[in-house]
């Protein structure tokens, strides 16, 4: 099956498609506000990536590169990706779209951090993610999962 992952241009059309996803929230509303205020014509560097089947956006995620100076997870300290809002629409789950998005993120060959929803742990385990050792000051209410390419280790926490 064809699974092309594309960077999603943020415009009214894309924001309408986003309304089908459960995790529609402040991030999308602020983008809408920016468009309405004409502060931006289009987001050129949108953090959203997705998969279209025909005219339907069936899966999406946000992916953002965190700079090395803010890295508190990996050894050696380096740029890493943070992944959030991974979601596949109900009718399209279990067909490999979630995996395709995660593999797209891995293809940058940078470590990845995500904060999974309850219930999705089996999926993340299958994708090769592991629990980061919990560090209260760093993680607070999060339960981060991490994935590391060859040669990268988890930073030791005290
Ligand atoms: N529980 C257990 N395993 C799961 C799973 C789940 N909820 N979702 C996917 N998997 C497994 C698949 O069986 C598959 O395994 P395989 O390679 O051994 O066949 C692998 O993970 C990849 O599955 P894929 O088809 O790419 O998953 P997906 O496209 O459905 O994406 C989610 C996974 C979790 C991102 C997607 O289902 C989603 O957005 N769900 C929303 C709600 C949610 O989090 N549900 C969790 C269960 S209630």
From TrEMBL:
InterPro entries: Acyl_CoA_acyltransferase (IPR016181), GNAT_dom (IPR000182), YlbP (IPR017274)
Keywords: Acyltransferase, Transferase
Annotated N-acetyltransferase domain residues: 8-150
Entry EC number(s): 2.3.1.-
Chain coiled-coil ranges: none
Molecular function, one GO term: acyltransferase activity, transferring groups other than amino-acyl groups
CDD domains linked to this entry: NAT_SF
Top-tier EC class: transferase
Protein name: Uncharacterized N-acetyltransferase OPHB3_2782
Organism of this sequence: Oceanobacillus picturae
Record lineage: Bacteria, Bacillati, Bacillota, Bacilli, Bacillales
């Amino acid at each position: 099956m064809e699974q092309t992952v594309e960077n999603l241009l943020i415009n009214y059309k894309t924001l309408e498609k986003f309304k089908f996803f459960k995790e529609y929230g402040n991030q999308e509303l602020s983008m809408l506000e920016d468009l309405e205020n004409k502060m931006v014509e289009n987001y050129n560097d949108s953090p959203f990536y997705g998969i279209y089947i025909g005219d339907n956006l069936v899966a999406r995620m946000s992916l953002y590169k965190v700079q090395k100076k803010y890295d508190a997870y990996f050894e050696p300290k380096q740029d890493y990706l943070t992944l959030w809002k991974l979601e596949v629409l109900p009718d399209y789950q279990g067909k490999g779209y979630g995996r395709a998005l995660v593999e797209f993120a891995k293809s940058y060959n940078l470590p990845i951090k995500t904060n999974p929803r309850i219930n999705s742990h089996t999926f993340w385990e299958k994708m090769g993610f592991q629990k980061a050792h919990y560090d209260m000051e760093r993680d607070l209410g999060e339960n981060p999962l991490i994935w590391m390419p060859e040669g990268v280790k988890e930073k030791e926490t005290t």
